[in-house]
Specification:
about 250 residues; single chain; mainly alpha; 10 helices
Length: about 250
């Protein structure tokens, strides 16, 4: 697991050179725009709803003493919860709607690394979009199911540290999952892809960790996160598929 996670992390060092060598930047224009606009919408929504959630949390404190402090802490907690839910939603939206643009990138990387044996796409852009939406709706549902209890636990001192770390790793896993599926859609059906990622969850988490850290970089991180993470995931996934084919 640790070895696989590190492999997912280290794949990023070859991402930028590969993008430049294969002249892939032109394929990322629309996904980068989708990423930027989605981030703006979610960011403004988070700003607007955080106060409302903070007020709701504060109402749970029925005593007068400490009410001011509780309201302040509730506003902070509300903002953190909204940001966490926003990040979860954000990555699935951009991954789903970027599928028609990311799949050709993955195919070009495969054609370069495995000339003569790579799998050609046999689906249309609409088919890739439907597949992307299906995968990401499924992942979003599971991620929310796992994340909401952890978000509540993260408000508890001490326990919150472990809950926050677990929440980050869950988000990383599903980010890596989405990045890997741009390659897997040429090789596997829906259910087979899910099983493949589960069997290689360490690689998905490693890829997703850097994805999530990119989002902490203002503006630039949001714009570059998809091109670099998808390129890194494509290379790693292709290596895993090659290993599987030679077993």
């Amino acid at each position: 697991m640790i070895k696989a996670l590190l492999s997912g992390l280290f794949a990023y060092k070859e991402a930028l050179p590969l993008i430049g060598k294969l002249k892939l930047w032109k394929y990322f224009a629309v996904p980068m725009l989708i990423s930027f606009i989605t981030a703006l919408i979610i960011g403004f929504s988070a700003y607007g709803f955080s106060d409302n959630l903070g007020a709701f949390i504060a109402k749970l404190w029925v005593w007068e003493w400490g009410a001011t402090t509780v309201r302040t802490l509730s506003d902070i907690a509300g903002a953190l919860i909204i940001i966490a839910l926003g990040l979860i939603t954000y990555k699935h939206i951009i991954m789903a709607f970027s599928a028609p643009f990311m799949s050709p990138v993955s195919e070009k990387i495969e054609a370069h690394l495995y000339a003569g044996v790579h799998q050609h796409r046999d689906t249309s852009n609409a088919g890739q979009l439907v597949r992307g939406i299906k995968i990401n709706v499924r992942n979003l549902a599971w991620e929310l199911l796992l994340s909401i209890p952890l978000l509540l636990l993260s408000l508890i001192p001490v326990v919150g540290i472990l809950a926050t770390a677990s929440l980050f790793l869950i988000q990383a896993y599903y980010a890596g999952f989405g990045n890997m599926d741009y390659t897997l859609e040429r090789h596997f059906r829906y259910r087979e892809s899910i099983n493949f990622v589960k069997a290689h969850r360490g690689f998905a988490i490693g890829n997703g960790i850097v994805f999530m850290l990119f989002l902490l970089i203002p503006v630039i991180g949001i714009i570059l996160v998809l091109p670099i993470s998808v390129t890194a995931a494509s290379k790693t996934t292709l290596e895993l598929l090659d290993q599987k084919n030679h077993e």
